[in-house]
Amino acid sequence: MKRRWIDIQQNILLELLRPLVYLWMRMDAKRQVFLGQGVSFKRKEPFIMLANHTFMFDVIHVPLRFKNVPFIVANQTLFKKKATRFLVSQVAHVISKQKGQSDTSTVRDLIGAVKRGYPILIFPEGDTTFYGETGYIEESTMKLIKKLEIDVITCNVRGGYLSKPRWATAKRKNRSIELHYELTIPKEKIKDMTVDEINLKMKEALYYNAYDDQRIKMIPRPGKNLAEGLEDAIYACPACGQVHTLNTMGNTISCSFCKTQGTMDQYGFIQGFKYDNLIDWNKYQRTRKETLHQTPLQTQATLYFVNEETLSMDEIGRIELRYENHRFIFSGDYVKNIPLEEISNPTITMRRDFAFFHEGKNYLLKMDHHAVAFLRIAQDKY
Fold first, then answer.
1. Is residue 280 a part of any domain in this protein?
2. What is the pLDDT of residues 335-356, one digit of tens each?
3. What gap in Å lies between CA 175 and CA 198, rounded to an integer?
4. Tell me, what CATH number does 351's domain have?
5. In the chain, N or C terminus with fewer CB closer than 10 Å?
6. Do 46 and 157 belong together in one domain?
7. Which residues of 26-41 are buried (b: 16+ CB within 10 A; e: fewer)?
8. Cβ-proximal residues to 303 (8 Å cutoff; 6+ apart), any chain
């Protein structure tokens, strides 16, 4: 299939910008690359690449060295924000996907990119990890692999989570990542594999536990205010079982109910609480689901309605969002009372942008705090 004019424009712009992007990524994190047999950055033929999603900029680091730049699947929100709309629509090879929803148009665009000779890159978790462990992987990606029957390369990204935790509001020093590329399934083997077998193979290739890796390497990543922002990811105190009582300041984490206090060290581990890592802490707080649903919660936020036709965000204003008795209650510049069972596709993008659909409207709330708690109240998938 012949390449489109927009493809050619993007190829030219990407090549011109490549030296600047290299410099930018060097400043972002020190990068080590490990190429497995059968993987070449110079390859011309299409392939499908899957990677685990550990931090915001792995979407740039992972495809950066490939001469034939892949089309990347990215959240539809990037096409709606003024700051990123031009970049993803006119410069980078990006295909939009609404998180949490099946999108046949995305699949069509991916197949079209392959037919035009491009590789494609998918982060099948659909979102960056909050806790440092590879999460839920959409099975629809495996069906696409089965359909395309082209080489499947995986990139296991290591070190990115503790270098730039999604929840963190402060920078770490000594940021570093490792990119491990492997030809995980040659195209000749795909036709003999079931979707379940492909799924198992991908889960094995992409799984990564940042804390297990760090216990071996113990890479220091010092900084100020290392704990700040944690209250957006953790909401249950393992010492007393209460929810919404955790606070952070500097490197300190404390519970306002039982007064337990701990610190986050330069290696990313938590001292003073039962759990020294967020993977185990998150597994614990998931057991507090009933308490979470019974406990009121509130935060301030800026509310937007996303216009699906114009791909724009209409700012409504500052609101207070309160959860109580299985309802989201809005007050301030927008007043509304929404039963939980009436909302659909609740998701979080970035650090704490909470979105959902209700009565044909796409709500987007840039929240001040408690993003994951509100998400878990609305759904328990992620």
1. yes
2. 999 999 999 999 998 899 999 9
3. 33
4. 2.30.29.30
5. N
6. yes
7. eebbebeeeeeeebee
8. 315, 316, 317, 318, 319, 330, 333, 334, 363, 364, 365
Q: At 89, phi and psi to the nearest 5?
A: -100, -25
Here the tokens at position 28 are 């972002």
CATH number at residue 23: 3.40.1130
**How do 120-122 and 94-97 pair as beta strands?**
unpaired
222 within domain boundaries? no
> What is the C-alpha separation between 339 and 345, in angstroms, rounded?
14
Banded pLDDT at 93 (limits 50, 70, 90): confident
Show the domain range for 286.
Answer: 230-291
Largest CA distance in the chain: 65
- Whole-angstrom distance, CA of residue 314 vs CA of residue 333: 13
Q: Is residue 223 part of a domain?
A: no
Residue 224 inside a domain? The answer is no
Cα–Cα distance measured from residue 91 to residue 282, given in angstroms and rounded to the nearest whole number: 38
DSSP state of 11: H
Q: Reduce the DSSP state of residue 129 to 3 states and report it.
A: coil
As a whole-number percent, the residues of the chain with pLDDT over 70 amount to 94
Radius of gyration of the chain (CA): 21
**Dihedral sign of CA atoms 330, 335, 339, 345 in order:** negative
Q: What's the pTM?
A: 0.91
In this structure, are residues 62 and 179 in contact, taking their beta carbons and an 8 Å threshold? yes
pLDDT at residue 380, as a whole number: 76
What pLDDT score was predicted for residue 62? 97
d(CA 154, CA 182): 5
Which amino acid, one-letter code, is at 118?
A: Y
Total domains present in the chain: 3
Residues 283 and 356 in one domain: no
Q: Are residues 178 and 324 in the same domain?
A: no
